[in-house]
Amino acid sequence: MSETVPTFAIVGAVNHGKSSVVSTLAENDQVRISSMPGETVACQRFWLRDLFAFYDTPGCQNAIEALRELQPAARAREPLAVFRDFLVRHGGGQDFEAECRLLEPIVNEDAGIVYVVDGSEPLLEIHIAEMEILRLTGQPRLAIINRTKSEDHLEEWRRRLGLHFNAVREFNAHHATFADRVELLETLAGIEQRWKPRLMDAVAIFREEWEKRLDDCADIIGGLLEDALTHSETAAGSELTSRQKVISEKLKAQFMRSVSEREAQAHRDLILLFEHHRVKAAHSIDHVIDSGLFSEETWRLFGLNERQLVVAGTIGGAAAGALFDLATAGHSIGLPTVLGAAGGAVGSFLMGKKRPEFKAKLPGAFPFGAGRQLQLSGRTLSVGPCQAVNFPWIILDRAFGVFCYLLGRTHARRDEATLGASQLKEVLDQYRANSAHWSDENRKACERIFAAIRRNKSTAQHRDTLRLIIRDQLAALSMLQPTRAETHYASRNP
Amino acid sequence: MSWKISDVIDFEWFLAEDGDVDDAALRVRDGEIFARISTSAAQPPPKDRKDVLRAWLEARRSETSETPPGEYFLTAWQLLSTLSALAGAAIGMSVATAVLLAYTGDEPVNVAWFFACTVGIQWLILAVALLIWLLRRTTHLFEDFHPLRRLLSGLLWSLSTALHQLPGERRERMRARLMSIRRKGEIFQLMVWPLLMVTQIFGVFFNVGVLIALLLPLGRDVAFGWQSTLKTSPETAYRLVSSIAAPWSFLPNAHPTHDDVVQSRFSYSEGIKSLSLPAMTSWWPFLFYATLFYGFLVRLLLLIWCGVSLRAALRGFSFNHAGHNALFRRLTGPLIQGRSDTIRLEMPESFPSIDHKTSGSCLALIASELEIDQDEAESELASRLGWQLSKPFLSVRVDDPGGNAAVLDRIALEAPSLAGVAILIGARRAPIRAIALVLRKIAEAAGANIEVLVVLVRSGKESPEDNALREELSTWRNFLAIHDLRVGLEGWPR
């Protein structure tokens, strides 16, 4: 057996889900899964540095016949010699092509065996022959019961597998989480003592990688928020009113397009981070108002609820008024603060869940907008940044929706998916991941950071705090399954 | 590998350029770059994240024929610094000379006035800057008021593109991209230091100009004195002067003596006549030292501080923005690497057609694992095919090419009187090579004139998905064609 890199051959009957297991283990949704059995006959090799490697092998095609030839291994002093002889005799032929391919890593690389069966398929004689062949190799063996359909032959399989394998475990490749993946690797470590140190190192790397991925997700979402909250579009204005109007309209459309594009890019980054190549971020540049980030539906479905918006609006309005009070050294007897708070509350109540209407504006005069007026090109029109209280929360919710969707999707799935607003909302609700469910403390901390970002005053510390909050929320979500998300999450955020 | 500001600009520039490139293409390109830099014999493999990104930058630079904008920026910065130094020296000399030229011989040059115009003005500017900074920090007033910074940064970035006389379109593109890079939070903060350095270079050379003016014959020949509209006693003036001179008190002629101070006090009504010449000339070293210590050295220290801060900011540049992280992930690739050597089998373009006799007797075989109501199957298939099916159906092990001797003998025996042989197989059974071998043996036993027909049976227990049987039929049709089997195919129930 290999002293260096533990290697496994993932074998099994045709259409029993080998490639699904490989896809999930390797986090690769481009592993071949063909509806035409026998279409692919080569092995695919996967590896994690020098810690372990595994092969996705073709399914057994002629196990009963092969067993007849390999039976002598049961009495042989060196069983693998019988297999080597089998490979020599049938290596170039067609009758046992698949068997030769799948036995090669076992015979030549001392690979351990992971035998995948579908517990919803009946146990047939050919499967018993496959198990017997694998037993005859004498290599460490783990059986995985995968279930693809509702029919249940589990007990039948379990009894038989117990006779031929060192360990048997269930693994649903279509619903496996990160924890299941790690657990599978830990089981592999258990079937052969010599492999344990390297495989446990691999487990540690898996965990580290997962932590890093959560960091990266938080980075992507944090970066998106920063860009979206500070984005503005500018263009040279015109002396003519009619021309000015046209420029304004173009600028508004351009602003919404750019922010939507930035959001879609972040969603794509999240999807790529999870190595999902069959999932697409919905991005209809030409329909941002009808169906995208700036649609009425999006502003109604995502973000804070009315009560939270009123609180946020009140605080924001009061803070703006207080600045005025401060500037007048208290001579305005606190009236601006009160008026600001009231205005903020009413505005948020009436408009908080509505898509904001953007206006092209000429930046203010000296001293507050002095810099912008210094443009040499004359009067400059600008649109954005979006000041709506709910805007960052909507961006957050949609990004969390993408994250939750990716959490629940395994790489064994082969369907293409495009993540639209309703799908994001659905998955967000399943996990109760909406920002409206966040703790008041986190929400307030985020509000402060959003305010700093909007003023272009965010520091590295702000950024780190925001990412930490987002990361903690992501980590909490990643511990959940959507079906049991409600109770768990509620207990974390009473 | 250390980072310079031009490196950071180029790095951001290349990242911004990548925004227009397809994700898949980026992954391929960056994967290749990483493979190259980690195996390069010319330099040691990169140790950490910053090194990896820096190596990527060098690789990108070597691939492009265009000069990246970092160099443009450096040229512009150097030019602006030079202009600033020249302007500082010229203005410093002009100011000092203007004050000195006010000397007509009737009364001495007022020390306080000279001090205020040269050193005092600088301290006033520093105090105002500090006040504005404090106001910004505490009250958020003047947050957007950076006229000097905006002017300088505008000049800097405009010069970056203008200096190199780029063609119009490229200049505009570069300018737009540089602006977008400049707006990024961390870059924006990094850029403060080069701009501050320009202002401090101006300050340093302003003082150099003043010192040169003092060293010129004009400066040395001027008589200095003091007077005050306040009732300041010579003792107070002396104490003030000696306190000011404390930093250079160890130097010769650090400040005028008490007698010098007394004898150099003048009034505009009495003029210079009553004053002592040595007392008046004793002020010259004091003014020289004051400019040197309170002007030149302070600005030099500020310049050094800016330079050190820029270096520290570059060292502390986090490279943890979402774009940076995405690049790092693209470079290092997924945790588990995979290699595919898949061989795809050629699918025939057309399928062999089988002549079907619409009457006659048929030998019916059934896969050994299949459990169905044979009466129902017989009556259904008889009406559909026009054949008289033998009963009971003969059990056949469809995946055992070496078995079924009795069945094959019977087929051979009855073949002359048969219209066809029907083999009923469970529709969910994966078509494998062993089945192909069995079918071939059956076809051979039946002879060329007998139609062999596979009937895929979907039992009532199995899920009645609409397209399931159609898909299975399609799979089997391909399978039969790939194995070049002249065997017909039917589904039951339809």
Give a structural overview.
By secondary structure, chain A is of the alpha/beta class. In chain A, 54% of the residues lie in helices and 10% in strands. In chain A, strands 2-3-1-4-5-6 form a six-stranded mixed sheet, sandwiched between helices. A two-stranded antiparallel ribbon of chain A has the order 7-9. In chain A, strands 8-10 form a two-stranded parallel ribbon. The model of chain A is unreliable at 364-378 and 484-494 (pLDDT under 50). Helix content of chain B is 59%, strand content 8%. The model of chain B has no long low-confidence stretch (mean pLDDT 82). Chain B is rod-shaped. Chain B starts with a helix and ends with a strand. At the A-B interface, strand 2, helix 2, helix 8, helix 9 and helix 11 of A face helix 6, helix 8, helix 15, strand 3 and helix 18 of B. Strand 2 (44-48) of chain A pairs antiparallel with strand 3 of chain B.
Largest sheet of chain A: 6 strands, mixed
Please, what is the average pLDDT of chain B?
Answer: 82
Number of helices of chain A: 18
Q: Supply Rg of chain A.
A: 30 Å
Our estimate of the beta-strand percent of chain A is 5-15%
N→C terminal distance of chain A: 54 Å
The number of helices of chain B is 19
Helical/strand content category of chain B: alpha/beta
Which regions of chain A contain 5 or more consecutive residues with pLDDT less than 50? Answer: 364-378, 484-494
User: In percent, how helical is the residue content of chain B?
Assistant: 55-70%
What's the count of strands of chain B? 9
Percent strand of chain B equals 5-15%
